[in-house]
Amino acid sequence: MTMRSGKMVKAPHDLVKSPEKKGSLKLDGMSVIEFCFYTQGRKGTFFLQDHLLLIVKSGVYTVRFGDQKYRMRSNEMMFIHKSTGVEYEKTGEPDSDYILDYMMFF
Q1: CA 40: distance to chain centroid?
Q2: Cis? peptide before 94, omega within 30° of 0
Q3: First to last CA, the chain
Q4: What are the distances in angstroms from CA 62 to CA 28, 42, 77?
Q5: How many CA atoms within 13 Å lie on the side-chain side of 30?
Q6: pLDDT in tens, 29-59
Q7: What is the C-alpha to C-alpha distance for residues 10 and 97, in angstroms, rounded to an integer?
Q8: Which of 92, 80, 84, 86 is nearest to 56 (CA)?
Q9: Helix (H, G, I), strand (E, B), or coil: what is residue 31?
C-alpha cells in the first residue's frame, strides 16, 4: 500500500473545511466532527494529528494503515493513534440508499 502525501489532509484541522460536512463542533481545543454522506464509494487519505475515535452509525467505513485493513459496519467503532497516515473508503449499504453516517471524535 502506498500513501500519497501530496493529497493527504491533516485531521482534524483540515476536515472542518470540507464542503461535504453535515456539521462540526470544536470545544476546548477538542474537535468533534460529524459527517453524513450519501455515497456509493469515496476514497482518500488523511494524516491524524490527534487520536481518533471513529464510530460508524450506519454504512461501511474501511480504513487502512500500515499493512492492516479494517472494515467497520453499523454500530462499530475504532480507536486510531495519532501520527498515523490513514487510507479510507466510505460506502453505504445498497438496501439503505447508500447512506453512511458516522462520527469522529479527536
Answers
A1: 15
A2: no
A3: 25
A4: 29, 10, 11
A5: 9
A6: 666 666 666 566 788 898 998 899 999 988 8
A7: 30
A8: 92
A9: strand
Q: Distance (Å, rounded) from C-alpha 18 to C-alpha 31?
A: 14
Residue 26 has pLDDT above 60, yes or no: yes
Closest CA to 83 of 10, 27, 33: 10
CA distances from 105 to 34, 79, 93 (A): 8, 9, 23
Give the separation between CA 88 and CA 8, rounded to whole angstroms: 11
Taking the CA atoms of residue 70, residue 71, residue 73 and residue 77 in that order, the dihedral angle to the nearest 10 degrees is 10
pTM of the model: 0.70
CA distances from 8 to 51, 86, 91 (A): 17, 9, 19
| C-alpha closest to that of 2 among 59, 58, 66 | 66
Measured CA to CA, the distance from residue 17 to residue 72 in angstroms comes to: 25
Q: How far apart are CA 100 and CA 64, in angstroms?
A: 18
Joined grid coordinates for residue 73: 459496519
